[in-house]
Amino acid sequence: MSINDPSKRTQQPSELSQMVGAALRRPEAGENPYRAILRQVRQKLTATSDPYELAHPSPATRQKVEALTRQTIADYRLAQPVQGLPALDLSDDAIIQRLISDVLGFGPLDPLLRDERIEEIIVNGTDIWVIDESGKHRIEANVGDADNLVELINRLVAPTGRQVNLSNPILDAQLPDGSRLNATIAPVAMPSPAMTIRRHRLVARQMQDLIQLESVTESAAHFLAAAIQARLGILVAGGTSSGKTNFLNVLSGLFPESERVVVIEDTRELQLPITDVVYQTVRYANAEGTGEITQRRLVQNALRMRPDRIVVGEVRGSEALDMLLAANTGHEGFLSTVHANSAGQALTRLVQLTKLAPEGTQIDEKTVAEWIAEAFHLVVYLKRDPVSGRRRVEEVIELTGSVEQGARILHQPIFSRDGAGSGKVLARTPYPLARAERFRDHGIDPTPFAPAPRNFSGTSTVRASPPAASRSVPEQLGRGG
Predict the structure, then answer these.
(1) pTM here?
(2) Are both 49 and 133 inside the same structural domain?
């Protein structure tokens, strides 16, 4: 079920927004009875409860809040006719349910955080937007005023021990469920605070899932699975929300069970169906500016852990240099992702990232390009269709291993979308594999991945059969975690 029909977004609210709005619609600005009760309950809880208890509520805490709320409601109803207070327009049970959500949960975000269809939650001031596979939708609810949003942000990040405030107006944190939260408040964000929650969803766990989602064709899937067995270095490239992490997770899941894998990430997202795997994530500096552990340090440390493979969730800084040095000194089969708008641009981006290391500025670009040409053999470029929201492989290029004058890394398309419009097909190109010998060295027959006929076009139906090798690639396509 789609959250919203794209053709009707401007005419009527989505099904999800109606559902959330009916339960959590906020009153108009100004004094209202619910806010008065909420304020009183919070004041009493602050005076009688431990902050940890409220951040990690138990059933007993919930009962305490419920009892306190019932008493506060009763007091309000008694005072209302005497003091001329606004009448309550909700039942006691409705007020209690909403107040518990606001005090112990995350208010209007609660149903959104529970909805597996939602990929991102965006809050601008008091307005809430969500992004799912069909696009971006506005929710018929809001978080109240700026103070409420700041309080909500700090409740969300309370388990991390961090908070956003005037001295720390920019916050980037990982929530307990792995979601990534970014928030900005005044004086950085004006006139209202803003928050974005990016939720990591592993829609596909195995290559067969990607085939069914039409993210990749069977022939390209068999080729990539064979490339993993042949220990080729693979770089997955694409823009934001193009499916890079999900694709990397599927590729990593094809590693032989006997291999030891070290996974390095900025935020824990990958989940490999392998027993001998070590997950390492960065640590940000504390309030005193100490204690930081960078991806670069983790890559350096991984080399001492006797890894058969190293996976870097996303290369985005100086760790690019250490990754290339490791790959050129015996550590084959690196996998990583990088932000780029094309497969070719991913290579240029990698060269630029090495310059972020102090010693990287002392190395000429041609040398760096040669290291890249040896470290990575394939680049898989993913793109998200702006209309359908579908994420799919647009191109797979092979690095030939050569570098031209001017530090240009030679490469050729192996799979490319050919045809017109939305009917473009990811098909094998006419170019022969430059690294065919690598497949043979690992007992894999590259014959099934032969070039397409020279009259390559969008109507090409060339499909590689599963390779006739001692290792079963088709079986690996269906292996998942």
Answers:
(1) 0.73
(2) yes
